[in-house]
Amino acid sequence: MQNIFTILLISSLTFACNKDNNDNTDPNQNANENPPANVVDVDGNSYSTVKIGNQIWMAENLKTTRYANGDAIPNVTDMTDWNNLTSGAWCHYNNQSSYNNGYGKLYNWYAVDDFRNICPSGWHVASKAEWLVLTNYLGGESVAGGKMKSIGTTHWISPNTGATNESGFNALPGGYRQTNGNFYSIGGTARWWSSLFTAGSFNFSIFADGTYISNNNSEYQRAGFCIRCIKD
Q1: Cβ-count burial 64-74 (b if 16+ within 10 Å, e if not)
Q2: Distances from the Cα of 204 to the Cαs of 54, 175, 197, in angstroms?
Q3: How high is the pLDDT of residue 153?
Q4: Lower Cβ count inside 10 Å, N or C end of the chain?
Q5: Long-range pairs for 87-90 at CB < 8 Å and ≥24 separation?
């Protein structure tokens, strides 16, 4: 009788433990997930990754020339052509490929919004809500930028105020392209698209002269900003 009781007790405890292990109520699917060492896009570019709070981000700006299904994204260099776009496109800052390795590419909004997904499979362009989760986790908009910026002045212009990169986000100042095709602020500004467009698309910016991160509602779908992808 004692042996039977012991068996029943062990079975009951085992069932309870298995139930607890399988009952994951965390709404963030990345909460208990370690980031992959790197992620590779459809062009074969490899990106380092970082886990910040419960989010897994690329730690580099996107460089792809194709959507995840392999379809090409046009490289548009001419200013007039860029200004007239109504579909996805990319460019290098100042149309110089030497900027690619350090800063990635600039993309217009249409490339972000394309159903073919500009990020690698299993990743997506971060939404405004996901950017705000990151900002709040790092202490709020007044200080988050400093915790995200790569340190030193190899990429950022001096003084690169308050840069610690303690988050590991490694923000790089790729500058941006205006709707008229002109380029601005390489080394001084890091600016990224968010994924939703409702009366404008929010973009998030970090600057060389401060520790803050700002979010702005851009009505200009033809602007060229960098992209950071986040894991699904």
Answers
A1: beebbeeeebe
A2: 20, 12, 14
A3: 96
A4: N
A5: 88/112, 88/113, 88/114, 88/118, 90/65, 90/224
- Measured in degrees and rounded to the nearest 5, phi and psi for residue 212 equal -90, 160
SS (H, E, C) 148-174: HECCCCCCCCCCCCCCCCCCCCCECCC
Q: Say what percent of the chain tops pLDDT 90.
A: 76
The DSSP bridge pattern shows strands 90-91 and 106-107 to be antiparallel
Omega before 120 cis (within 30°)? no
Q: What tens digit of pLDDT does each residue of 17-45 get? A: 333 333 332 335 576 678 787 999 999 99
Strands (E), the chain: 38-40, 46-52, 55-58, 90-91, 106-107, 123-125, 176-177, 183-184, 189-197, 201-207, 213-218, 229-231
Alpha carbon distance 219, 10 (integer Å): 63
**Dist CA 17 CA 93 (whole Å):** 55
- pLDDT of 231 reads 97
Q: Residue written as tokens 């994924």?
A: 195
- In angstroms, how far is the first alpha carbon of the chain from the final one? 53
Number of residues written out for the chain: 232
Lowest pLDDT segment from 80-94, 108-122, 193-207, 213-227: 193-207
